[in-house]
Amino acid sequence: MKVLVTGAAGFIGSHVVQALLEQQFTVVAVDNLSTGIKNRIPTDAKFYEMDITDNDVETIFLNEQPDYVIHLADQTSAFESTSNPLKEYHASLLGTLNILRFSNEYKVKKCIFGSSVAVYGNSSILPSKEDSKPAPLSFHALCKLSAENYILLYKKLFGLNSCILRFSNVFGPRQTNGVIINFLNRLLDGESPVIFNDGNQTRDFIYVKDAAAACMQALVSESTGVFNVSTSTELSIQHVFDELTRIAGTQTNPVYESLRGEEINRSVLSNEKVMSTFGWFPSYSFALGLEETVRETELTRMGGLFGACSDKII
Fold first, then answer.
1. Over its length of 314 residues, how does the chain's per-residue pLDDT go in tens digits?
2. What 3-state DSSP class applies to 47?
């Protein structure tokens, strides 16, 4: 089977491509390389450097005739979306509409869409379930939710099968933005990470290889709909910092700053539905995922492939 992966040179996308190839899928990789890195894509995957908002993306569907689509192309920064909502609209909504339009026209069997925990905002009832009321706090989250609604309507109007995967906070090697990698880069540089408020705000962290495995399970399952992909474990930002300093072997103290208005206070997702439907479950503990992330990040930095990241958390 042939799978088209958008955002294939990005953080999650590159891990999904690798997982697909390991399972003997034929992979067509698409990325505009605005944030993705081309050498993350294995030579076994056919690569197109193209923006999915461009109508020329139809040529990929015409030439490749993919059986499935895993749509992960995205602008990942909620903070950047606040200052540039138009860019967010183009990346998240216009690109998704193009993918849906051509997937439907070229008879794709199923689309997998990478959504986000951010659609829930500050949920009043935790852990958040798939039927919890969305409450986006950023343009990024709002566009994710809007894209979900387009996908569900494409299913209703045209019968285009889809799975919407609402990822919790994904972390791991190759990440370039997010609380864990931002903390880690500053720790390795001998600098003090910034923690907002008192560090008691929480997240539900999932290792990127588990997220990629969930994409694989959604692909081969006949089930459709919306699914949380998470560990269903609530961890504080202070705990993340403490674990990172332990694993990295540093003694740096953090700097505490005031909490921003768009910051989610507590976040944890129920993963009951995805486990019962797909038979998927997270196989990496938080500590094991951190150890791999620290080890591979140190190796990458020694190779000089990537620079340091922002000092802020998401």
1. 999 999 999 999 999 999 999 999 999 999 999 989 999 999 999 999 999 999 999 999 999 999 999 999 986 666 666 667 777 777 789 999 999 999 999 999 999 999 999 999 999 899 999 999 999 998 999 999 999 999 999 999 999 999 999 999 999 999 998 999 999 999 999 999 999 888 999 999 999 999 999 999 999 999 999 999 999 999 999 999 999 999 999 988 999 998 766 678 999 999 999 999 999 999 999 999 999 999 999 998 887 543 433 333 33
2. strand
Q: Tell me the backbone φ, ψ of residue 26, rounded to 5 degrees.
A: -85, 130
Which stretches within the chain are classed as H helix? 11-22, 58-64, 78-83, 85-88, 95-105, 139-158, 179-188, 208-220, 237-248, 272-278, 286-303
What is the distance in angstroms between the CA of the first residue and the CA of the last residue of the chain? Answer: 36
Question: Which residues does residue 6 pair with via DSSP β-bridges, in sequence order?
Answer: 30, 71
Block residue for tokens 């921003």:
260
Burial class for 180, CB neighbours closer than 10 Å (0-12, 13-18, 19+): buried
d(CA 257, CA 248): 23
Q: Enumerate the H helices of 65-205 as residue ranges.
A: 78-83, 85-88, 95-105, 139-158, 179-188
Closest CA to 76 of 170, 214, 184: 170
Which domains, ranges and CATH numbers included, belong to the chain?
A: 2-170+206-229 (3.40.50.720), 171-203+233-268+284-303 (3.90.25.10)
> Which residues partner with 2 through β-bridges?
26
pTM over 0.85: yes
Which residues, at least 6 apart from 21, have a Cβ–Cβ distance to it below 8 Å?
Answer: 27, 42, 44, 45
